[in-house]
């Protein structure tokens, strides 16, 4: 469904584009714009951005391997 598609698209973009130095504002603007350009509506895009910020902010490694363990 559309919500799942928006989430998956947003997650892929966020993990590929997010820098640890990005502020919350920068993250939200970039991801929201990306979802809007893909045709997702305002409400859905806003919800996905909020969800992904909470999920990724809670994971300090953003799902990446710890470089110190290499």
Produce a short descriptive summary.
With 70 residues, the protein is mainly alpha-helical.
Measure the end-to-end span: 39 Å
Order of H and E elements:
HHH
Structural class: mainly alpha
Give the helix tally: 3
Number of strands: 0
Uncertain ranges: 65-70
* Basic shape: globular
**Whole-number radius of gyration?**
12 Å
The biggest sheet amounts to: none
What fraction of the residues are assigned to beta strands by DSSP? under 5%
Mean residue pLDDT: 84
Please bin the fraction of helical residues. 55-70%
Structure write-up:
The structure is a single chain. This protein is mostly helical. Helix content is 67%, strand content 0%. The chain has helices at residues 2-17, 24-37, 42-58.
Helix and strand arrangement:
Layout: H1 2-17, H2 24-37, H3 42-58
Helix pairs in contact: 1-2, 1-3, 2-3
Keywords summarizing the entry:
70 residues; mainly alpha; 67% helix; 0% strand; globular; disordered C terminus
């Amino acid at each position: 469904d559309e919500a799942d598609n928006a989430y998956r698209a947003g997650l892929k973009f966020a993990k590929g584009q997010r820098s640890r130095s990005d502020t919350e504002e920068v993250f939200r603007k970039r991801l929201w714009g990306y979802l809007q350009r893909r045709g997702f509506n305002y409400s859905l895009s806003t919800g996905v951005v909020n969800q992904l910020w909470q999920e990724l902010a809670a994971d300090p490694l953003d799902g990446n391997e710890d470089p110190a363990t290499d």
